[in-house]
């Protein structure tokens, strides 16, 4: 027992506490490499001084096994969620690595934070064996070594395949200053050879002066619509937005435009409530956005400008091609959890949701009615010095998954690959079925304004959206016109 205590204090606690001071000066990956080299050199130094003994290998192996048993248990119980309280107790075992763990946390080197110390201890174990090979009867420890490999593999596999890590793909907001999961640059008002729909005749409505142009914002899938409308109606909007994109204000205000702006549904509704924009294009707001408007003392006015379908999609290899509205509600309430119950394979259903303030999540809430949505799949990530952040996981190509969105978002902007859209109650979301509203989850594309906004050009632009030219742009973009 005395040998165990002495080894624990001097070869674990003090050794790694001193080595961790390296982390005050360099990045964690570099610190880890240097610490590894120093551990090997220190073990070699002990050999040269004849201070390596066979029982030290057994003590080192025991320390690693204790830590790995705890790591495996915590990984299984937490399902990989590092905000789980048990992780705090586990980190106590790593207290000599406190500076290393802190640096990894601050720089988002999450896997290195969990598995780095274990790897260092294992390298120390191997060094002990290499430098004392003639004295260590390795066959005596073969069972413990196999347990070590098994525990290490298990803990790493559980962590990597856990929901907290597995579903971190999907829409990562890589474009438009972090607001968009889609590359919308082909639809900028000033892009040469853009993909914007253009009229085949002069616009019947033109706004000449920049200060008279209503400021626009909207959902990702609506940007091609209102950008095309602005290109047709706002005189020289391409030059105005081009000049703004090259100015210092562009990145400072971070709205991806001066008049034709984009901050997605989550932020766009807040900007509408605050009077920063005049018109928002997209789905109806979520409950929290309605509450935000009520608290601000404003009221939304909804103008339907097009027709759209709310669709559900699965992997293209999934044998299920149709679901009833009740089956969908049962899946997202948690009553149906296996594809076999709806005519598919004996596989668990991964029912993905969208962030709470997104347009599609608001639509899903309306669709579910009084039936509550089950807790969504989530993943965790590190955001700078903010610590652990949980977010709603989103579809990322899982074969047994189901997701939802608006038809144009999926087909027009090609948001997901290798998926198929399900028919609902035996009806496919075709243009014809959307227009005659036989598709059961047909909905509208809205232009949303504040009732208090009485600007003349806001009213005129809404009238233009309902005119033959406005409906032409909406239809040709990929939505269904109202008539």
From TrEMBL:
Keywords: Lipoprotein, Membrane, Palmitate, Phosphate transport, Signal, Transmembrane, Transmembrane helix, Transport
Mode of membrane association: Lipid-anchor
GO biological process, one term: phosphate ion transport
Keyword Signal: yes
SUPFAM superfamilies linked to this entry: Periplasmic binding protein-like II
GO cellular component: plasma membrane
Classification via Pfam families: PBP_like_2
Subcellular location: Cell membrane
Major place of residence: membrane
Positions of transmembrane segments: 12-45, 57-77, 89-108, 114-132, 141-159
Subunit structure and binding partners: The complex is composed of two ATP-binding proteins (PstB), two transmembrane proteins (PstC and PstA) and a solute-binding protein (PstS).
Family listed: Belongs to the PstS family.
Function comment: Part of the ABC transporter complex PstSACB involved in phosphate import.
Name of the protein described by the UniProt record: PBP domain-containing protein
């Amino acid at each position: 027992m005395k040998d165990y205590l002495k080894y624990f204090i001097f070869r674990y606690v003090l050794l790694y506490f001193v080595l961790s001071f390296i982390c005050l000066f360099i990045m964690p990956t570099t610190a880890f490499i240097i610490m590894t080299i120093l551990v090997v050199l220190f073990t070699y130094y002990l050999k040269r001084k004849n201070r390596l003994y066979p029982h030290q290998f057994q003590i080192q192996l025991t320390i690693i096994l204790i830590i790995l048993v705890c790591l495996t248990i915590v990984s299984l119980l937490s399902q990989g969620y590092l905000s789980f309280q048990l992780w705090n107790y586990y980190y106590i075992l790593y207290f000599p690595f406190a500076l290393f763990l802190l640096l990894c946390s601050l720089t988002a080197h999450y896997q290195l934070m969990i598995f780095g110390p274990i790897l260092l201890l294992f390298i120390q174990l191997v060094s002990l064996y290499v430098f004392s090979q003639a004295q260590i009867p390795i066959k005596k420890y073969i069972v413990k070594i196999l347990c070590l490999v098994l525990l290490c593999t298990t803990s790493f596999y559980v962590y990597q395949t856990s929901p907290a890590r597995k579903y971190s793909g999907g829409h990562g907001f890589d474009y438009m200053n972090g607001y968009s999961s889609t590359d919308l640059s082909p639809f900028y008002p000033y892009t040469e050879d853009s993909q914007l729909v253009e009229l085949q005749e002069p616009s019947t409505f033109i706004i000449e002066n920049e200060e008279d142009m209503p400021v626009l914002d909207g959902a990702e899938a609506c940007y091609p619509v209102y950008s095309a409308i602005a290109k047709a109606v706002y005189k020289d909007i391409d030059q105005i937005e081009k000049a703004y994109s090259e100015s210092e204000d562009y990145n400072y205000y971070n709205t991806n435009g001066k008049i034709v702006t984009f901050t997605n549904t989550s932020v766009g509704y807040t900007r509408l409530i605050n009077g920063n924009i005049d018109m928002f294009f997209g789905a109806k707001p979520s409950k929290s956005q309605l509450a935000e408007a009520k608290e601000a003392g404003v009221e939304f006015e909804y103008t339907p400008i097009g027709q759209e379908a709310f669709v559900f999609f699965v992997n293209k290899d999934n044998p299920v091609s149709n679901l009833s509205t009740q089956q969908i509600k049962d899946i997202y309430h948690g009553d149906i959890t296996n594809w076999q119950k709806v005519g598919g394979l004996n596989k668990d259903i991964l029912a993905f949701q969208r962030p709470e303030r997104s347009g599609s999540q608001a639509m899903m809430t309306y669709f579910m009615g009084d039936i509550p949505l089950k807790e969504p799949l989530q993943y965790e990530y590190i955001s700078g010095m903010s610590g652990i952040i949980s977010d709603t996981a989103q579809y990322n190509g899982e074969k047994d998954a189901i997701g939802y969105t608006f038809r144009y978002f999926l087909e027009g902007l090609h948001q997901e690959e290798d998926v198929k859209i399900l028919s609902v109650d035996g009806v496919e979301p075709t243009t014809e079925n959307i227009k005659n509203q036989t598709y059961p989850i047909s909905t509208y594309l809205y232009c949303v304004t504040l009732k208090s906004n009485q600007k003349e050009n806001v009213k005129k632009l809404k009238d233009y959206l309902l005119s033959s030219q406005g409906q032409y742009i909406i239809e040709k973009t990929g939505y269904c016109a109202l008539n």
